[in-house]
Amino acid sequence: MRNKILDTSTLDKELLKQLDAYIDSLEGDKQEHLIHVLHKAQDLFSYLPQNLQLYIARKLDLSGARVNGVVTFYSYFNEKPVGKYIISVCMGTACFVKGADKVLERVLELTGADKNEMSKDGLFTVKDVRCIGACGLAPVMTVNDKVYGKVKPKDVDDIIRHYRSIQYENK
Question: What pTM, to 2 d.p., does this model score?
Fold first, then answer.
C-alpha cells in the first residue's frame, strides 16, 4: 500500500491543513499518536475514507495497512459517510440475551437504513456493536453519545421520533 498513489483531490484542503497542524503539534514519536490523529481526522472530515487513511499513514510514516487495521478494529471509526445521528445497538451477550436483536430490527425498520449504512435521508447510521460496556442496562443502544438502557422494541419508536423532530425543529 506504500506504493499506492495518494489522491487527495476529494479531500477538503482547509481540513487537511488543520489535520497537518494537529499532527505537527504532537510531541514525541508521532506514530504513538495514531488513535488521537484518527479521532481528530474523523472529527474534521466526519469519516475516514481510504485516501485519508493513506494520507495519515504517510504523515505518520506508517503503512496504510496498519492505519486501516486500527480503523476497522474500533467500531468508533467510520470508513463511509455517516448520518447526523449514529445509532449503535449493543449485541454483546447480556444485551443479545435480553432482546437486542429485536431492538436492532426495529431501529432498522424505522430508520430505513441497512446495518452499518446511512439512511437515505442522511439522518441515521445504524451499527451493531460488540459491547457498549453497560451490561447492567441491557439491552443498550446509543444515539451519538446518549445512552439508552433497558430498551424494548416499542421504545425505539419514541427515540427515533425524538431525533426526527429535532431535525424538523432545526429547519
Answer: 0.75
